[in-house]
Specification:
333 residues, 12 helices
Length: 333
């Protein structure tokens, strides 16, 4: 925060965006050097990845402080923050997969999906309770784990995570020693909101909350069926494949946050997800080339997410009479 006064009229959203750009840089460089998440990357790429994650984490912490200090907290800021966080989940996980050299396959799939699930359900719980209740191990620990993975990769050199250790006559690669505990934590983080809402009945919203949980369940279930029916997409085009579900879940999360701050009902049927049933049917009957359809759906998902974000920014800045990335001088005098 000591550097922020030099740029006092920077809106917190710009701080959020700068951190997100760090993750984008890390993702682009990693995918360039490791297009199948299995290639050896130069040591400086691991260092860059760790630095970008640290930069993102720092900016993600500073945006809220800047908002409170300048009195510019708003619904737009919350939407902007969670919108960037949603896509960071996919991009940052892809970067870690490249550092671990796990390659395209089910490890890559579970790394992304098992993070998207708790992210969606945590925001689903907030929609009803109005508060974000995280477990003892949460996002911060995940970010530090990612930085640790990158730094160890830089120090120990290429292929370090491909080494194995024998436990009970089973040869286990080092990257599984990293991933399996992460899988367990992600599953627990996904179960906790469901338990609180559906079993404990917090806020007496069992039936309504079950209905609003359906879009996320629908998206993950259909995407998993799509992957099982066309596994070649995961093993050959995993970056495209998982980016698609990332954009779709990010779109759902954005709508959850928007409808919550606007006090609007979140309906079980979300038109955003309509291409998923078609993708499943195409895998079964082969209407069009599966690879072309995958790329078209990923572009569609990315475009609709960008269109949604820009539309919300325009509407809220006009309604609240604020600027998205800058605080007018008269507001901070």
């Amino acid at each position: 925060m000591y550097l922020i006064p030099l740029f006092y009229n920077i809106r917190p959203n710009l701080i959020t965006l700068l951190g997100f750009f760090g993750i984008i840089l890390s993702y682009v460089v990693s995918v360039y050097y490791s297009p199948t998440a299995s290639e050896v990357m130069p040591s400086w790429v691991y260092v860059l990845n760790a630095a970008c994650m640290f930069f993102y984490q720092t900016m993600d912490a500073l945006d809220g402080k800047q908002a409170r200090r300048t009195g510019t907290s708003s619904a737009l800021g919350e939407l902007f923050d969670h919108g960037c966080d949603a896509m960071t989940t996919v991009f940052a996980t892809s970067v870690v997969s490249c550092s671990l050299q796990i390659g395209f396959g089910w490890d890559y799939y579970f790394s992304v999906i098992l993070l998207l699930i708790p992210f969606y359900f945590s925001q689903w719980e907030v929609y009803y309770t109005g508060s974000l209740n995280l477990w003892y191990i949460n996002v911060t620990e995940g970010q530090f784990t990612a930085m640790f993975v990158h730094i160890i990769g830089a120090i120990m050199g290429p292929n370090f995570y491909l080494n194995t250790v024998t436990i009970l006559n089973y040869s286990i690669p080092y990257y599984h020693i990293v991933l399996v505990p992460c899988y367990v934590v992600s599953i627990v983080m996904g179960i906790i909101p469901l338990f609180r809402m559906l079993v404990l009945g917090i806020g007496n919203n069992r039936i309504p909350s079950l209905l609003t949980a359906m879009p996320g369940v629908f998206a993950i279930t259909l995407f998993t069926i799509y992957t099982l029916l066309s596994p070649e997409l995961l093993f050959e085009y995993a970056h495209w494949h998982l980016a698609m579900i990332g954009f779709l879940v990010a779109g759902l999360v954005g709508r959850l946050v928007l409808f919550r701050v606007c006090k609007l009902p979140f309906y079980p049927l979300q038109l955003l997800l309509l291409p998923l049933p078609f993708a499943v049917l195409n895998s079964l009957f082969g209407f069009v080339n599966n690879y072309l359809l995958l790329k078209a759906l990923t572009i569609y998902a990315g475009f609709t997410y960008l269109h949604f974000g820009l539309g919300v920014i325009q509407e809220l800045t006009n309604f609240l009479d604020i600027q998205c990335l800058r605080i007018p001088v008269k507001k901070i005098d």
